[in-house]
Each structure stands twice: as C-alpha cells, then as structure tokens.
C-alpha cells in the first residue's frame, strides 16, 4: 500500500502557505483521492479559498478538515500564526463516503447515506463538529450508533474566528466527516491529560450539573478532602488545575471523561461541573498534570507501536487545546514525542475544543489514529 503524502507551512498569507504545502506533496499520487486539511484560525476566513486552490492544483477531489487554534504535523506544532497542514491518502474506490449537515438529528444523514451504509457496513469514521452546537454530545453518540463498531474519532473546532469544518465544502453549526468501510484498516488509541487525585465518589444528590451530595456528604466537603489542605484553603487556585472525572460505565481500562468545574457555592457546599449528571453515577476529582500526561502519552504510544507490523501509511492526531504547548511545553514537545516513539510518517491534526473517541466526547485527551 502506498504511503500518504503530507505538507505543512506557515506564511503571512494563505497563497504562500498553500503553495509551500503543494510543493511538499509533489508529486501528488494520481491515485490520491482523499485529503485532510487543517488550518490555524489565522487562516479561518480564507479556508474556502485554500480548499478551492488545493482541489484545483492537486487534483484531489474530496477533502475533510477544520480550524484549530493550533494545528500539528509530524514533529511540529503551529500556534498563533497563519499555517496549514495537508495530508493526502489513497483509498480503494468507494471505501469512504463524506457526509455533512448533521446539526440536530440524523434524519437527513440517513436519507443521504443509508444505501451506502447498508452496502459497505462502515465501522469507523473521522468527524469534526462545532462546539457551539449544544446537541453535539448527543450527535456523537447517535452517529456512532449508525456504525457497525460504533467507533468515531475526531474533534471539535477551536477558533477565535469562523468555526468552519470541511466536508468537500465548508460547514458550520453541526457535524461532518468521512465514513470508512472495513477495507480501510486503522488502529486508534486515546491518552488522558488529567489524572485522578481521589477515589470514585457516588453522586447521592444532584440537580442538573450541580453536585449537592457525594457519598451522602456535602459535595464541597468531599471535594476539599480529595484536593488536600493547601488547595482547600484557597479554592481559587483550583481553576484550570482541578477537574471532574466521569468514569465510563463498563470500561475495562478505567476510562473517564474530564469536565471543567464551572463554579463553587461555598455557602451551600455545592459544585457545578460541565455536564449534567444523575443520582447514582460516579465522579472523581482530577488534576491537570504535565508529568502524568507525558507518562500516559508514552504508555499509549508504546501500546500502539506493539500492534504495528510496519510503518503506518499516515495518521491523524486530535489533541486538546489544553495540551500541547501549555501542558507539554514549547518547541513542539508533544508532537516530537509522538515522532520519537513511532518514527517519521505522514501525520496531521489540530488542537480541539473537545476530542471524540469511540462514541464519546472527551476533554484534555489526545486521540491518535493510524492508517495501516
């Protein structure tokens, strides 16, 4: 199987960056038929022009991608500058299908794609979504249920400007992406960026997204116990450092979804988190920790490497905006670690406002997918 081609560049204008990427892609394989395109939000307003130019000049008809406050490629990250990263792959005819316009339900999606899905039984999809859509988490689960394996990977656009996704054309407001048949072999893994600091707690009383009681005690009392005396004396220091972890039911790997702390009511002992919960569910408090994030990324990379029989043809990496330079440090440390442990291969991706793995929406994670 032919390896993918990739290119990446930063420049003062989109034309210069796009030309530099095309030069790196050359010669574009005549059989290349699907491109992945990620741009920093400095180029978001020109994404349509970039897409038209790449399609015309490369001859690759189908493209997917989105905007990130940061983008990444093999051993390299781009932030706060106009930049783009491009990956072109070769797939067998009719082994993939692009979709778009999933914003409230799957009615239009099923109408447009049911025949292809019935014939090809897709087991995997790469998806991009708009974080401003309040139905996004439910849409992720619904889309996953349409696939035989229920396995999605992807991320939500992160941008200080337009929130575009690419699915042949430009999209905003919903979800779009590409479905793959079993003819496209992949392997994918997730790595966490936060680590638990206390035991699982049972939610014994709650109201929507507000934790009232944990283990039969006031939520704030339990929270202070778990985070320790130093932080408990100054709760302002927990902002951006302490989070709520929601264990995934039925997971045999201890998987959990991280959600922000939205507020603390010290007078009534309440804690608001970034997701609605129900009585009887579990929660554990986590901290954002660079060392444990690095250790977990290394663990994930070793795990995925053990399953490889040769170099991957290409890959995509979706990492949280809270990772990258702010967690792993400067000089593209996160992507260099991926390169150092897996070797040089064509890889592109972006820093997301929420990451998608399997049928769930995560935060502070990295999701790596390799085409084999």
Describe the 3D structure.
With 372 residues, this protein is of the alpha+beta class. It has two domains: 5-191 and 293-371, no CATH class; 195-287, Elongation Factor Tu (Ef-tu), domain 3 (Beta Barrel). Helix content is 25%, strand content 38%. It has nine helices and 27 strands. The strands form four sheets. Strands 14, 15, 16, 17, 18, 19, 20, 21 and 22 form a nine-stranded antiparallel β-sheet that branches. A six-stranded mixed β-sheet has the order 1-6-2-3-10-11, covered by helices on one side. The protein has a six-stranded mixed β-sheet with strand order 5-4-24-23-27-13, covered by helices on one side. Strand 20 and strand 21 (270-273) form a beta hairpin. The longest helix has 17 residues, at 290-306. The termini are close together.
Domain unit count: 2
* Rg over alpha carbons: 21 Å
Number of continuous helical runs:
9
What can be said about the biggest beta sheet? 9 strands, antiparallel
Task: Label the structural class.
Answer: alpha+beta
Low-confidence stretches: none
Distance between the termini: 8 Å
Percent of sequence in beta strands: 35-45%
Tell me, rounded to a whole number, the average pLDDT: 94
Taken from the alpha-carbon principal axes, the silhouette is globular
Number of strands: 27
Helix content: 25-40%
Features:
25% helix; Elongation Factor Tu (Ef-tu), domain 3
Summary?
Helices cover 25% and strands 38% of the residues.
List the helices and strands and how they pair.
Elements: E1 5-10, H1 14-25, E2 34-40, H2 47-58, E3 62-68, E4 70-73, E5 76-79, E6 83-89, E7 96-102, H3 107-120, E8 124-129, H4 136-145, E9 151-156, E10 165-167, E11 169-171, E12 175-180, E13 186-192, E14 194-196, E15 201-207, E16 210-214, E17 217-218, H5 219-227, H6 229-233, E18 242-247, E19 256-259, E20 261-265, E21 270-273, E22 282-288, H7 290-306, E23 314-320, H8 324-328, H9 333-342, E24 347-352, E25 355-358, E26 360-362, E27 365-371
Parallel strand pairs: 2-3, 8-9, 23-24
Antiparallel strand pairs: 1-6, 2-6, 3-10, 4-5, 4-24, 7-12, 8-12, 9-25, 10-11, 13-27, 14-22, 15-16, 15-22, 16-17, 16-21, 18-19, 18-22, 20-21, 23-27, 25-26
Helix pairs in contact: 1-2, 7-9
